[in-house]
Amino acid sequence: MALGPETIFIVDLLAIFAVYVIVNLSLNLEFGYTGIPNFGKVLAVGAGAFVAASIPGRIYAEIAGIQGDYIENNLSMVSQINVWLADNTGIGFVVFFLTLGIAAGVGAGLGLLTSYPAIRLRGDYLAITLLAFGESIRIIGNNFTPLVGGTLGVQVPDPLSFLPGELRFPVATVGLLLIAFVVYVYSEKMIRSPLGRLLRAVRDNEVAAEALGKNSTQIRVKIIMVSAALAAIGGALYAFYVGGTIAFAYDRASWTFWPFLMILIGGLANNKGVLIGTLLFVTLRKFIIFFKDSFQGFVPFDVVWLDFLLLGVILLAVLLYRPQGIFIEKPTPTISVNGKPSGLKRMFNFFFK
């Protein structure tokens, strides 16, 4: 039974919402709670997508005994891999989760790499430096063909190829929502631990935090690494969902500026605000893209720019009339169990003291 257009619209909307929730929660951890203006968020997202595009297909081909150059014969090899995956579902999911782990590791490594030359900068200088790092991922992807096929891109094997065509995207969307929920719970527990108060202290008064014996530079480095790992997982999931990766799709507008707009709409340092801001933004943009051809004769410019202009207007309205976002930041109580320190608090004591 084929899915109707309304169902397809909702399924795709929820899938994109789930991916952006993961990316936006990581950005909120950096910018909302720690005050790090990471305008290079696209670096981690793109790195995760490139891992999904370059590693699992080669692993599948090696296990299945499929020969050929993975980049030059990409379409043929991925088609053969998908046929093989339909009969080897268990191996498909093992490699899928292994890929997410590798993406997280690569993201954390890039976070560490970019943090050291940039972390001692503050304000505009830090934002510009991270922005420059973010641009590098697209340039590398476009020019280093063995990675993701250069400007032509590559297809990504589908671990859900065993499903009928009409069920593939709904099942993938459910999986994305479940992973987004896990990331949300993880983020909530983190900011409700003593680490959450420490991040706010570093953000609000770094000198006072250091006077109390906290190493603010070390804290910033670790937060950038954790956030980059989460964002890389989001990028890898997006590549698996759409079934391919092309470097120029990972631009700073879609994967840096839009996430900033979403968390500003919802409210900084508030994970519930991230959910609401992301949902409102993704829904509005989907409707604009879906109906913008209807405005062709009513606007004095190409409708391809309509979503960018309208969403830019929304950003100005938020900054002028509701700069704190829909949800205002509130103190979050520390989680405890029967009066005893929680597991996160014990973990915090081990790593951050």
Task: Give the topology, please.
Elements: H1 5-34, H2 41-54, H3 56-64, H4 74-86, H5 89-118, H6 123-143, H7 145-148, E1 154-155, H8 165-191, H9 194-204, H10 206-211, H11 216-242, E2 244-245, H12 252-266, H13 271-291, H14 306-321, E3 336-337, E4 340-341, H15 343-352
Antiparallel strand pairs: 1-2, 3-4
Helix pairs in contact: 1-8, 1-11, 1-12, 1-13, 2-5, 2-6, 2-11, 3-4, 5-11, 12-13
In short:
The chain is mainly α. It contains 15 helices and four strands.
How would you describe this structure to a colleague?
With 353 residues, this protein is mainly α. It has a domain at 5-251. The chain has 15 helices and four strands. It has helices at residues 5-34, 41-54, 56-64, 74-86, 89-118, 123-143, 145-148, 165-191, 194-204, 206-211, 216-242, 252-266, 271-291, 306-321, 343-352, and strands at residues 154-155, 244-245, 336-337, 340-341. The protein has a two-stranded antiparallel sheet with strand order 1-2. A two-stranded antiparallel ribbon has the order 3-4. Strand 3 (336-337) and strand 4 form a beta hairpin. The longest helix has 30 residues, at 5-34. It starts with a helix and ends with a helix.
